[in-house]
Every structure is written in structure tokens, then in C-alpha cells.
Amino acid sequence: MQSSITVRVPAKVNAQLAVGGRRSDGYHGVASVFFSVGLYDEVTVTPADRLRITVAGTDAAFVPTDPSNLAAKAALLLGARYGIEPNVHLHIDKGIPVAGGMAGGSADGAAALVGCDALWGTGADRSVLLELAAELGSDVPFSLTGGVALGEGRGERLTPVPTAGSFHWVFATAEGGLSTPAVYGECDRLRELTGGSSDTEVPVPATDPALLEALRTGDPGALGAALRNDLQAAALSLRPALADTLRAGTDAGAIGALVSGSGPTCAFVAKDAAAAAALAAALTASGTCRTARPAEGPVPGAVLVRRPLVPAPNGPVSRAD
Ligand code: ATP
């Protein structure tokens, strides 16, 4: 019997986040182009006498260790589906900014689904994992799949977007997070000032063909020009200093800049790896962010990085993969 499973899961940035009006159920329809990038959390699942969460990494203190943690919810959901007591220790090593608009909690939910499935040997179909992921939250299915995908509905209905090659991003993190519901609320408030915020008053969210073309052809300049986030004005309204971060990145040579999701992380596109490294250094030195890190994408979604240790038929213990 094996002792633990580790799953690595990436962050996302929305290369486009078009937000429709507030619906009667309180949600907003979106057309989101999710883009997975190489900033990672790792979730390690180990058998335990009860469900337990521990968290390490920057801002770990702001991550709940009670049943509200999305990784705990994932273990409970998968266990309920297969009649298994979710007695596991979930250890989360955070590399994704917390409350940073990069779907860190969703990533951990997806990783816990994959990790518990592997540990318990439930062998859940991909379609079942995706269904459970959508129950956990609108961004969780994309954390499972990774790559680049168009998300519709609340973001959970995914269609893969053909993408050529790799793009170079830089992510500037901020001190303190922004609450996603607060940013949507501010978006509604700003829209009320100019014509209304309901789904009959705001155009139906749609994808920009120029963005899809930039991704299809692997053109970083065109990607940078096509970035769009309908939540950006709201994030800037709640955190005006983010305008300085965006400006610092553009002044330092970024070919595209936007607030990532609900913020406050700011995302920049660079033309290649060398430009991304230089841009990250310039942003860190600018004093307008906590730190800036380069990351490439797209990358795959939640994947096992450590398989059970098994004895080889006639030899030493080796990894199963
Ligand atoms: P999104 O982009 O999906 O809106 P986010 O990236 O802005 O989310 P998260 O890092 O997911 O933000 O954190 C949002 C809140 O979710 C946190 O303040 C925290 O209270 C809660 N949360 C629950 N589970 C986790 C988790 N595993 N990691 C981080 N935050 C979590």
C-alpha cells in the first residue's frame, strides 16, 4: 500500500474575460479565454485518521484549513460519490498567489480530485471528474484540463482553443488579495452609473476573434494587443495602485498588460523568454508590486508527479510511472 500521491496544478490567467450582466440567480455569464501558466501549487494526499489540511508557502496563513478549503470540499465530494470516508491529509504547497485572480483555490480543488482518485483507486472517468469539478466551482474544470480553453456559462463549459507554441508571461503579485465577489459587486456598481448592470442591459459576452487568431498563429504581439478584462476597471477602482503596476510593466517593454481575473495580480506578455526575464526584474525593481515572476504557457492541468512506490518484480523499489 502506497503512502502518498502528489499532484502539480497550474495557475490560470484570463487572456480575455468578457463579463455579461448580473443574472437573476446573482451570477454573471462570462466568455473567458482561460490560459494555463507555469506557476504551480502542489497538493500531496496521504492516508490519515481524518480529513486534515495543512498549507505551506507564501501567504499560507490566508488559506483556510477548515472544510471551506476547496481541496477539502473536493475530497468530500469524491468520497461521497464513491462511498469512501475521505480520511486524508491534504498538504498544499502554494506557489500560486492567494486571492490573486489566478484561481489558486480552484487549482487545489482540481488537484485534490486527481490525487484522491489516484490514492483511493476509484478510477473515476474524466467526465465524472469534470462534473464534480464544475460542482466545486466555475474555474475548477479548467484547472483539471489546463491548456487554453474558452469558458462559457459561469466559465465551466469548456471548449479547447487551438494554440501554436508557447507564450511568455510575467506576473506581478500584490500585497494582499482582492475578493472575487467584491470585484464583481464593484463592476455592477460602476455599470449602474452608466446604463445598468443586469443581463438585459449589458451585451451578451462574446469572444474576440482577434484573440483566437493570435493564439492560433502563436503571435505574442497580437496576443498582447487583444488582452481584455471587463473586471479590470472594478479591480482598479478598489485598488488604484494597480494602475502604477500596469504602467511600470508597459514602460519596461511589455507588449500587453492586464489585471489577471479579479486581480490584484497583474499579467504582462513579453516577446520571448529573455524579454520576460528582463521585464520581471524591472517590475520587481519598480517598487510597484511585491514581486514579479516569469511563466510560460500553455501547460497541462492537474497531473500526478509522484506515483506509488512499488517493488519491481526482481529488483529494488521504483516509481510506478
Ligand atoms: P479566482 O481567480 O478563482 O476568483 P483567486 O485566485 O482570486 O480566485 P484564490 O487564491 O482561489 O483566489 O482564493 C480566494 C479565496 O478562497 C481565499 O481568500 C480563501 O479564503 C479561499 N480558499 C479556499 N480554498 C483555498 C485554497 N485551497 N487556496 C487558496 N484559497 C482558498
UniProtKB/TrEMBL annotation:
Residues at which ATP binds: P97, V98, A99, G100, G101, M102, A103, G104, G105, S106, A107
EC number: 2.7.1.148
HAMAP family: IspE
Record keywords, A-Z: ATP-binding, Isoprene biosynthesis, Kinase, Nucleotide-binding, Transferase
UniProt enzyme class: transferase
First and last residue of the signal peptide: none
GO terms, molecular function: 4-(cytidine 5'-diphospho)-2-C-methyl-D-erythritol kinase activity
Recorded family membership: Belongs to the GHMP kinase family. IspE subfamily.
Pathway membership: Isoprenoid biosynthesis; isopentenyl diphosphate biosynthesis via DXP pathway; isopentenyl diphosphate from 1-deoxy-D-xylulose 5-phosphate: step 3/6
Name under which the protein is recorded: 4-diphosphocytidyl-2-C-methyl-D-erythritol kinase
Sequence ranges assigned to domain GHMP kinase N-terminal in this UniProt record: 69-147
Domain GHMP kinase C-terminal: 211-286
UniProt source species: Streptacidiphilus alkalitolerans
Residues at the catalytic site: K12, D139
Purpose: Catalyzes the phosphorylation of the position 2 hydroxy group of 4-diphosphocytidyl-2C-methyl-D-erythritol.
Domain of life: Bacteria
Swiss-Prot/TrEMBL catalytic activity: 4-CDP-2-C-methyl-D-erythritol + ATP = 4-CDP-2-C-methyl-D-erythritol 2-phosphate + ADP + H(+)
